Amino acid sequence: MTRPRRSRALAAVTAATAFALLPAVPAHADAIRDQQWGLEALHTGAAWQTTRGKGITVAVLDTGVDDEHPDLAGQVLPGKDLIGFGAERGDGSWALHGTAMAGIIAGRGNGPGRGDGVLGVAPEAKILPVRVILESGDPSRSKARESRGTALADGIRWATDHGADVINLSLGDDSESAHPEPGEDAAVQYALGKGVAVVASAGNSGDKGDRASYPAAYPGVIAAAAVDRYGTHAAFSTRRWYATVSAPGVDIVVPNPDGHYYIEWGTSAASAYVSGAVALVRAAHPGLTPAQIKTLLTDTAGNAPEGGRDDARGYGLVDPAAAIAAGAKPRSDDLGARAAEAAYGKRYFGSGPDPEKEEGKPAGWLAPSAGGLGAVLLALAVVLWRGRNNGGRSGGAPFPAGPYR
Q: 388 and 268: one domain?
């Protein structure tokens, strides 16, 4: 990308992510668990009878994660900062969004209310933080316009090479100028090829034209749409062909580095819930490929739309318990192919390869004719060869014996 395009890419991704944070309000610590309606909606209690995500690493590509928060202490691995400037620990605009998403995925519930803090979908999974965007309130945000815009692609590759089993992308560019970036697409395919599942928020432009959001629209990504506690599609959640499944995205309690808890909304939260669900499925069935996991989620989603799928909620509400149970059953080898067809409607983006032509046997007259023609050519060659041997080349020696090349 040229430098102007790089700067636009980073600024757009930052803005789209921060948008989900605007209506946050404090929540009381002693009532946190009661407000976590998403855990019950995803049947996490049933899933936890099999696994709580132990042994799985979820990379959170975001604004950074507060590894000292009580709900995340001991869960956060050493990460990577691919921005290199901006707010630091202690600043009011440091690691807000990333900490919130990490809490949804792997919070241990050890907050101020004597163990009542945020409990994640996969509370025994580890978080690998990768800082690739800035908070909307970061004083250095304007500087981002002059920075390199490959942080997201670089972050995906870095996380893949440093132990991630799942990559959560609670971010996206759904601006009017949004478009796919080859470098990001290639990074996503790199992760998938290495066996890393990639989850992204479907976008928050549902009431602004349903513009496509990237990275959610890249092939192979599990795109999360948002619903409320009644299973109803959230008005802000983008309606697009790439929606895979839906997850809680309204009235979501999240931890904050300032020690308080907040109520959030957005497909960012939905993506984090789905990433937690994928972590549980991956822990229960470590041999599954990203495509097979995606198919399991779509096959077992609950509260499916009429007809089985729509652009608002995908195949329905993600259900890790059902996916874990289904994954234990014998499965066919076409899970990956069915996942691709379910996400994109057909096997190929274009018309696909030309069909192979049926090669019939040659017509009855063709063989003898070909033989006759060969004999004629052979005779002609002999005549020419003899003529050249007898006459030679003008002013020179005859052609040497032996093969000609």
A: no
Considering the candidates 43, 69, 97, 233, report the single residue annotated as catalytic: 97
173 is catalytic: no
pLDDT tens per residue across all 405 residues of the chain: 333 333 333 444 543 343 344 345 666 655 788 899 999 999 999 999 999 999 999 999 999 999 999 999 999 999 999 998 999 998 989 999 999 999 999 999 876 555 689 999 999 999 999 999 999 888 887 665 544 479 999 999 999 999 999 999 999 998 888 899 999 999 999 999 999 999 999 999 999 999 999 999 999 999 999 999 999 999 999 999 999 999 999 999 999 999 899 999 999 999 999 999 999 999 999 999 999 999 999 999 999 999 999 999 999 999 999 999 999 987 655 555 555 544 444 433 333 344 444 444 444 433 444 444 444 344 444 334 444 444 333 333 322 323 322
Domain count, the chain: 2
Distance, in Å, from the CA atom of 59 to the CA atom of 395, rounded to the nearest integer, reads: 81
In a domain, 356, yes or no: no
Report yes or no on 222 lying in a domain: yes
Tokens 């789905």 belong to which residue? Answer: 274
62 is a catalytic site residue:
yes
Catalytic residue among 237, 268, 271, 275: 268
Q: Is 268 noted as a catalytic residue in this protein?
A: yes
